[in-house]
Amino acid sequence: MLSRRGFIRAGAATVGTLALRPFGLLPALAQSGANYRALVCVFLFGGNDSNNTVIPMDDASFQAYTSIRGSLALTASELTPVVYSVSNAPYAFHGKLPELASLFSSKELAVMANTGSLVQPLTRSQYQGAQAPIPLNLFSHSDQQLQWQTSIAQGNSPTGWAGRAADYLLSQKINSSSFPAFLSVAGNSLEGQGASTQPVAITPGQSLTLKGFTGSSASQARLNALTSLLTTDNGVSLAQAANNNMANSIADAAALEAALAKTSPLKTQFPTTSLGSQLQQVAQIIQVQSYLGMSRQIFFCSLGGFDTHAGELEAHNKLYPQLSQALAAFYDATQELGMAQNVTTFTESDFSRTFQPTTSDGSDHAWGSHHLVLGGAVKGGQIFGQFPTFELAGPNDTDTRGRWIPTTSIDQYGASLCAWFGIPASALATVFPNFANFGSEQLAFFG
Amino acid sequence: MRPGNCSRLLFIAFAAAVVPFPGYSQSSSEPSSTQWLSASAAARFLDQATWGPTPATIAQSQQTGISNWLAAQFASSTSDIPDQPMLTSAGLPNRDIRPVQAAFFQNTVTGQDQLRQRVAFALSQIWVVSAGGGVPAAYAYPPYWRVFRNNAFGNYRDVIRAVTLSPAMGRYLNMANNNKANPRKDTSANENYARESMQLFTLGLTELNPNGTPVLDQNNNPIPTYDQTVVTSMAKVFTGWTYPTAPGATARTNNPEYYVGQMFAVESEHDTTAKTIFASITIPAGQTAEQDLESLLDALMAQPTMAPFVSQQLIQHLVTSNPSPQYIARVSTVFQNDGNGVTGNLQAVITAILTDPEARAGDDPTAAINPTFGHMREPVLFMPNILRGLNATLSSNSAVYYDSSEMDENLFNAPSVFSYFSPLYRVPGGLLGPEFQIYTTQTAVDRAGIVYAALYGQIAQGTTVNLTPFVQQAGSTSSLLSYISSIFLHGSMSAALAQAATDAINAAGTPLAKVQAALYVVLTSGEYQIIH
Fold first, then answer.
1. A69: contact with B, CB 8 A cutoff
2. How far apart are CA B482 and CA B484, in angstroms?
């Protein structure tokens, strides 16, 4: 039986590029890990207030930070100092991110400053005068999440940027298996939806075995009945969509379950948090990439709870240790696997938050945000892009509350990651259609 | 969505093999004089309006017809979710919402107020408060649930008002203790409830025509319902409210969390400046917090966008993910004016949704199938439908909530105020399929596993099913399939499904094994997953 992954989505025009694959197929030959590369997204849902993630510690900046942030301002004792390795400029990480500060100092972690959704480069006066295109539905969680995931600031994209990258991998047969290149351990995400590829989404630690099939003739007949129905059609389109999803799920779950049976236990201890479990699951899948026939994979993880309109400091004190410990454990695991050079982890988030606090010791929805890029191939210890000027109604502000207009676009951020990942310049324009609006200028995270 | 022409043509080609399986389509003959509805029409209606048809409810609604059935539901006594203790026996804050979840599922199986519960659940998916996301106190949920139960057939204005003043929402989106801006500290009022109450609960992001399509400006661009300056003003409107004062406590400007009763105004923390909100409406300076709220409710109810915005979501929750613009328009016209000049009459809106020709078209088994019709049985609909259909008994500690959680719909525990899935989520091919957002590789496999467990003696603790009525039909494959189809597929089982189920039946030995095999194949099928 053949799965019809992506059949309806793709339509006739791209049918020839679709992966039609048998259930449970595993590649005959395992590939070497030397050429393997993985991108691992950690999406911070709710909009992380990155103004308190990384802080410039030069006197002028820190003074402005302390003065404007008021009840949200961290004191020096609540910060872990680090130094920008190129200029020796002082920065600091939130004190509940000690593992990440350490990875920055050991040059495995870089910071991408003030990045967000943009159609094209934008100034405060252009924004305020509506003289240039601005992203659709700014400051809305759902829209800005999707713009991070699609890199289409104009909105309404049916595909995500990682899905389009997966489309490219499929078109070039980069992976020897038809197992999907995008795998989420945090639910369905538009980020991994391609035009000709669809993501896998699993729950860490949960069995992928289809229950109730003992091999008896009766159970085999039941299984045959179930699978035979997946290619039938009762005329209801959504039933067909459910069938397609079920067919893919059974095939993907079986392939993954079989590959994961090859894992050997990791020595690295992961924290027993949601993100820790997710990243542990990702590490295990990376460990068996050769059995899955994968040489390029994109993973999607998430941590929620960042919508800190109130009680932000308390919330960060709970969330940041989870983030820091899980990312550090994951990096350790890639080292243990000998894959630290082959795996790059990066953050995304809806948006950052107002520099000016709310009356309830929190912050409201804003825009440009600082992000983290972690891995053995990363030029760590560096700050890429520009920090905003800490001034309400200043040059980077949309209004008067410190909603920073991004100075680097998601396209540039994503394209830089994808270039390392192995998407050639010729294909980047398809994966990131707005990239040319920024002069196709990449960030030098790698090398 | 992808450009549709090619895929649509191909789709039609693949869809050609839909023929009613002889004998499995329930009576398509005219109902007798004492029966207003055919059994299949009754079952199909009950799939939209209740937690699932049973032989008894099918027979009963056949007798009453839709209009009398609705009238009885509007007058029905209400089921309840019992209050929960604030503290555990050890004196700690009680964060165990499982008894709340268990009571919810028990009500779905035994409650007489089936439609009220369905509408209340739909409203609760619009007006989300979540235990994991900020309101862990278990005792907050029974009163919050009652807001929707009590107003399910009331007026949408009362829903807005009751939720706005509910301490659970006050906590979740920070309207509780949202003090006015403090110039000395250079702070601003909290924008959380201000923004989300517009985006998610009342207006949405762009102005809508009555048929749900966006209103376009002269450049063919959608018109935002509000911008950041409106959010800032709305945040000021919502200043000056605090939690109810707990028994024995002294009222304070900023009371600590307490979830029984309504929030009350603290005028000293209310911003009394004039506020220009959506549609350039000005709320005048000098009003109290209460007056500002009433002004805002007046303004909201006067926005023509609210009717299609809310109507479309209620249609999606009850009937179909992709209603036609005409269907939305018919319902939103009733939302706008129930015929007596009242806006937001939910009883009239629900009636319009369930009696609309588009909702009822499929009742006629000879009618052509509308390929875009229907919606996926989300886990919280899936579990009760199976349980009711299988004559289940739930004890007060029934753990079926766990099955729903495993399928990514953990009741009263949505990941965020954006709920479990977005009304805008699309399936490959471009149709809206909100519930598919939580239909993943994992949950698809899990869903089949839960069906297996329910049928083969491994159902959640505190829960039993009774397959006897099915076993009584097992002597004849066609009788058995007809019976299963009448309950779970309103008699619409396709020929392919019937054949597949027959193959599974034929490989099974005992009558019970035949029943289990047949039900397994039906309840895991795509055509059962989609309520159509």
1. no
2. 6
Residue with tokens 């995304």: A348
Q: How many residues comprise chain A?
A: 447
For residue B436, the 8-state DSSP code is G
| DSSP code at position B184 | T
Best to test chain A binding among B196, B445, B503, B528 (most A CBs inside 10 Å)? B445
Whether A188 and B426 lie within 8 Å, measured CB to CB: no
Distance from CA of B57 to the nearest CA of A (A): 26
B416 to A304: CB separation less than 8 angstroms, yes or no: yes
The structural domains of chain A, with segments of one domain joined by +, span 30-211+269-438
The SS3 of residue A373 is strand
Does ipTM come in above 0.85?
yes
Which residues in chain B have Cβ-Cβ distances shorter than 8 Å to A141? 416, 418
Tokens of A73: 């301002």
Output the pLDDT for position B367: 86
| Amino acid making up residue B123 | L
What's the pLDDT tens digit per position in B117-173? 999 999 999 999 999 878 999 999 999 999 999 999 999 999 999 999 999 999 999
B4 touches A: beta carbon within 8 Å:
yes
Query: CA B149, CA B124: separation in Å to the nearest integer?
Result: 9
Tokens 């820190």 belong to A62
For residue A332, which amino acid is it?
A: D
Of all residues in chain A, the one with the smallest CA distance to B518 is A222
Chain B residue with minimum CA distance to A72: B187
CATH of A30-211+269-438, one of 3.30.300, 3.30.1300, 3.40.720, 3.60.60: 3.40.720
Cβ-Cβ contacts under 8 Å, B1 against chain A = 158
B288-326: per-residue pLDDT in tens?
999 999 999 999 999 999 999 999 999 999 999 999 999
